[in-house]
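Notebook entry, structure prediction.
Reason for the run: the old model in the group folder had no record of what sequence produced it. Starting over properly, with the input documented here first.
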Amino acid sequence: MTLEEEQLRQENRRLQEQVRSQQELLERQSQQIALLTTQVEDLQARLSKDSHNSHLPPSSDRFKRQPKSLRKKSGKKAGGQPGHPGQHLQMVEEPDRVISHRIESCPACQQDLREVAALQVEGRQVVELPPKRVEVIEHQAERKCCPACQEVILAPFPDDVTAPVQYGPAL
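New structure, fully documented this time:
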């Protein structure tokens, strides 16, 4: 074997070792690329979720631009248009309750106005729902003495009334 052949063999071994190390490096890089691709897909899936397509609350929605309305502009200003008759609540003729607000003294000079007749009374009405209150129903069962046999008898209570005081089925 000549010196040149020996050098070629050493070069060949060195190149084969270099190819093996590059193949190992390439394999490690492929695994890392696969791992990173999985992570990127997971993060993109998380970013695409909002309150419309997941359990997240609306406050967690990211800063996405809201879709623009498909309605075309009419050229009119917002609100009621000129000439349109407005609608509002009408006063009732006989309210359920009237509260009089009397003026007792002049705010400018403190003159007593309790005996002075009013020039005009201005009315304003407030529509309210009455407060719901609890209804208490008392069941009374008679107790009687039979004149024939002297037996004392108590009238039966309804089956669902079993205690001296209890909540009804609606509570």
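Summary: The two ends are 107 Å apart (CA to CA).
The old model has been moved to the deprecated folder.
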